[in-house]
């Protein structure tokens, strides 16, 4: 039945999307770039394989670029400097040579933790391209006789393109459109569309304000499949030591530097005013 065939191929594409997206968000980003939680070797191996399926350079290079991005955001040393426009921050930065400042500042970064992780260095030396295209094509063919053409174009090429663009939207759209509830002095924004498409990475004003928070958001699992995944891994004993910012710290920061759009700030302020008025 053609309809059943399409559903099976779409399901394979969805599974490959989720796996490769988590390889970037839970792996290269939250684990290796920011060290927001710890992972056991089996989980690190899974995330490295998933990251290879996403094929966005290797983990070491991804994490180095990302650390430079956070440290020198919106300057020439930022690899995808959003002040150079949407196209450059989305994909253009990958089409040209890196600015000399990116290379210079990148060389000075502390990366010893990445070099000390055998999983990261193995993936860097033996980046397996097969995982990006051949596995998504061959597994459906082997399991239910999917045509190799459909396997190559749907879970392979289309899924790869969607994951790439979802990731790039964090560097482009989430640095341009949205509110800034936590720090209005920086460019990164809260963007729900990006949060949805990049499985939880669109709460970008929060993330740049509190980069060490494993959830990259104050709202837990809301639009945040990556946080759901990390919590499940903790439940299974494969991850531990999640770093989280306290609500009080978030509130204080939002009141001090936010743009006033943090919905939770106002009721709390009013509540405190009521309590102090009552005490008088
Ligand atoms: Zn980050
Ligand atoms: Zn950013």
Automatic annotation (TrEMBL):
Cellular compartment(s): Endoplasmic reticulum membrane
Catalyzed reaction equations: octadecanoyl-CoA + 2 Fe(II)-[cytochrome b5] + O2 + 2 H(+) = (9Z)-octadecenoyl-CoA + 2 Fe(III)-[cytochrome b5] + 2 H2O
Cofactor(s) for this UniProt protein: Fe(2+)
Residue stretches making up the Fatty acid desaturase domain: 11-211
Cellular-component GO terms for this entry: endoplasmic reticulum membrane
Enzyme Commission number(s) of this protein: 1.14.19.1
Annotated GO MF terms: iron ion binding; palmitoyl-CoA 9-desaturase activity; stearoyl-CoA 9-desaturase activity
Taxonomy, superkingdom: Eukaryota
UniProt KW keywords: Endoplasmic reticulum, Fatty acid biosynthesis, Fatty acid metabolism, Iron, Lipid biosynthesis, Lipid metabolism, Membrane, Metal-binding, Oxidoreductase, Transmembrane, Transmembrane helix
A single BP term in Gene Ontology: unsaturated fatty acid biosynthetic process
A UniProt-annotated Pfam family: FA_desaturase
Topology within the bilayer: Multi-pass membrane protein
InterPro entries, sorted: Acyl-CoA_DS (IPR015876), FA_desaturase_dom (IPR005804), FADS-1_CS (IPR001522)
Segments passing through the bilayer: 6-28, 125-144, 150-170
Enzyme class: oxidoreductase
Protein family per UniProt: Belongs to the fatty acid desaturase type 1 family.
Recorded domain comment: The histidine box domains are involved in binding the catalytic metal ions.
PANTHER family: ACYL-COA DESATURASE (PTHR11351), STEAROYL-COA DESATURASE (PTHR11351:SF102)
Name this polypeptide is given: stearoyl-CoA 9-desaturase
